[in-house]
Design brief:
Helices cover about 45% and strands about 20% of the residues. It contains eight helices and eleven strands.
């Protein structure tokens, strides 16, 4: 059974999230403060982590930062803080998703399952054996590997999905709407501005100079494309 960790100090919300995730087949454990959350994350073996931002002890941003230092486990933020600055900061630290309270428990579960399934596909390999090369970067769509020279570049499942989508058709411009639909699923509702944050974080990992990208190009007013 897939294990999920909820780091949330509001007991009622934590139990609501737990009940819905357990109904969806997860084994859920709770941490009521940021320090405990970091300790539990370090144990490993998690399929998913859901983190509040306003926590006793270490705040949610610190938990996100540590979660990404430890690995690429799908990471969701669920917080009452709805300001764009908070969303950008959390996503920039490596969170895969951001939900604002009050939220739909059904939507939480749907997004959680989508992120876990994407992560499992990333680890499982694929049928497309193509290797796409752009700006000195090698994108192996079959093995789901990204390399610059001999050095492998680790990506989160969300970052890989974004890069692979662009690499499927190098040179083709993908709009924010198309990218958002690929990352969240067709018909998904949410803030498409998150796409720009994921693009920025991806560039920080794959570009020689993120301020002057040579792999993932911005086509102003239209979207993004992988340089052919």
């Amino acid at each position: 059974m897939k294990r999920a960790l909820i780091v949330e100090d509001d007991r009622a919300i934590a139990e609501l999230e737990r009940d819905y995730l357990e109904a969806a087949g997860f084994a859920v454990e709770l941490a009521a403060d940021g320090d405990t959350g970091i300790e539990r994350l370090a144990e490993g073996g998690w399929a998913l982590a859901i983190v509040d931002l306003m926590l006793p002890g270490a705040d949610g941003f610190a938990v996100c930062r540590e979660a990404r230092r430890l690995g690429e486990t799908p990471l969701m933020v669920v917080s009452a803080r709805g300001a764009d600055l908070d969303k950008v900061r959390a996503l920039g630290l490596g969170a895969d998703d951001y939900l604002v309270k009050p939220f739909s428990p059904a939507e939480l579960v749907a997004r959680a399952k989508a992120h876990v399934e994407r992560y499992e596909r990333l680890r499982g390999g694929g049928a497309d054996g193509r290797i796409v090369v752009s700006g000195g970067l090698s994108v192996d769509l079959g093995r789901k590997l990204v390399k610059r020279g001999d050095a492998e570049i680790p990506l989160t499942a969300t970052e890989w999905s974004l890069l692979a989508f662009l690499a499927e058709e190098p040179g083709r411009v993908r709009s924010r709407e198309e990218i958002f639909a690929r990352l969240r699923g067709e018909g998904a509702y949410g803030d498409q501005n998150a796409v720009a944050v994921h693009i920025r974080r991806l560039r920080e990992k794959i570009e020689l100079d993120p301020s002057s990208p040579g792999v993932v190009e911005t086509v102003w007013g239209l979207g993004y494309r992988l340089r052919g």
